[in-house]
Amino acid sequence: MSRQKYKKATPTQQQYQIFAKDREPKRPVVSNCLKAFLVGGIICTIGQALQMMYIEYFNFDETNAGNPTVATLIIFSVLLTGFGVYDHIAQWAGAGTAVPITGFANTVTSASIEHRSEGYVLGVGGNMFKIAGPVIVYGVFSAFVVALIKIIIKELGGI
Amino acid sequence: MLKGHQSWVFESKPVIIASAAVGGPFEGNGALSEDFDILHSDIWLGQDSFEKAERKLLEEACQKAIDKAGMKKEDIQFLLSGDLMNQITPSSFAARTLGMPYLGIFGACSSSMEGLALASLMIDSKFAKNALAAASSHNAAAEKQFRYPTEYGAQKPPTAQWTVTGAGAAVVAEEGDGPKVTRATIGRVVDMGISDPFNMGAAMAPAAVDTIEAHFRDFNIDPSYYDIIATGDLGAVGHRIAGDLLIEHGMKIPKKIFTDCGLLIYTEEQPTLAGASGCACSATVTYGHFMRRMKKGELKKILIVATGALLSPMSYQQKESIPCIAHAVAIEM
């Protein structure tokens, strides 16, 4: 727990939080990291195999084979989410299924399925990007900032 | 009648003449499946939303309890019901179907015992001849409102709990056969600054301890008076903390009588992490499991301390800590 949180708490609260912390099971960080590495690696390997397949058999080259590869992974992730399997894999794999492109597809699909009962506009449309939205917002914004820095450095006669 | 600071003693001893518990598929595979009156294999219950499914669960539990009491809907004078959803819609919508005079209550997961305590109060004070106390929760509806979409692949920490899909209801009356409600202790809101909604057990444990201590202080009885003292839904984490906290406060509750509804309802093999939670956790375990054991004569005196976390999805996003409450009700044969 961060120090700031302790500062806001009263002495009794602080005392209790330390008391409770001692009795809570810890997240198994090391084994979670290993599982995430394994599953994340497997997904990336599948992606690599798909890319090579698209180059080898479908006349794509290295610059554009990424598109059908990503699309294939997304379709698989969406199907697994729809069949109710993805969340079970994720509970075991943790960041391994969250970080790659499959995790992103899962956030959009799961939110869409969940809010289907509120209709297509207010439900699916309004909530589809509930979890994925912040990633897009800050992803685009940070890309913009990085691009700006690159241009400035270039203009100043840098690399 | 008021006893001590925050407790009631029901001198007329209102009787739980009938009770019912309804559960979903996960509960059907659980450790107490035989104690449910109705079990569903589909979490949707044939409805088109989880919220409607929860309402159905609640309606069925109420109807079943009324049937078991040998009464008709029209015979019930008051309905007290609560659940976890925004504006307690499952309760109010079920009350629309049942068409009874209705008081909606909200005490999060403590609603079950809040309802039973208030129903007993109404009967003891002669403001009602009978009343129906009910509570419900639905796993997917609660996840949807408080956490993430059900199919979202987020890894839950080992302190997380599994919301029970189910509903429990009890018909309390002036006279009849059955276990009697003898005492109740109304809890204070306790906030120890825990703000993680995936660690409700640790957040609620101090509230449970506060109410348990108040109960024994107000009535001046020893914990060994009861055959079972069961907290509502502390789970493995909260149960351990509450037990240690009671010892630290100098209160001795024998280990074999101190338990938690959230630890009883599922089996070890089920992937519930720290145990069960939700209004239906204490409601189904009390109205299903404990009532059956009391009728069989295995238990004579029980104390149910239903715990509730009074947070909203908005409050935790705004980084507020989780205020918690616990209400205790004593039931004796």
Automatic annotation (TrEMBL), chain A:
The record's Pfam families line, in alphabetical order, gives: SpoVAC_SpoVAEB
Residue ranges crossing the lipid bilayer per the database entry: 33-54, 66-85, 92-111, 131-153
Task: Note whether Membrane occurs among the keywords.
Answer: yes
Q: Which UniProt keywords apply?
A: Membrane, Transmembrane, Transmembrane helix
Keyword Cytoplasm set for record: no
Name used for this protein in its record: Stage V sporulation protein AC
From TrEMBL, chain B:
Q: Which SUPFAM superfamilies match?
A: Thiolase-like
The protein's matches in InterPro entries, at most eight in alphabetical order, are given as: SpoVAD, SpoVAD_sf, Thiolase-like
One of its Pfam families is SpoVAD
Descriptive protein name: Stage V sporulation protein AD
Q: Which residues form the signal peptide?
A: none
Which residue spans adopt a coiled-coil conformation according to this UniProt entry?
Answer: none
Q: Which GO terms describe its molecular function?
A: acyltransferase activity
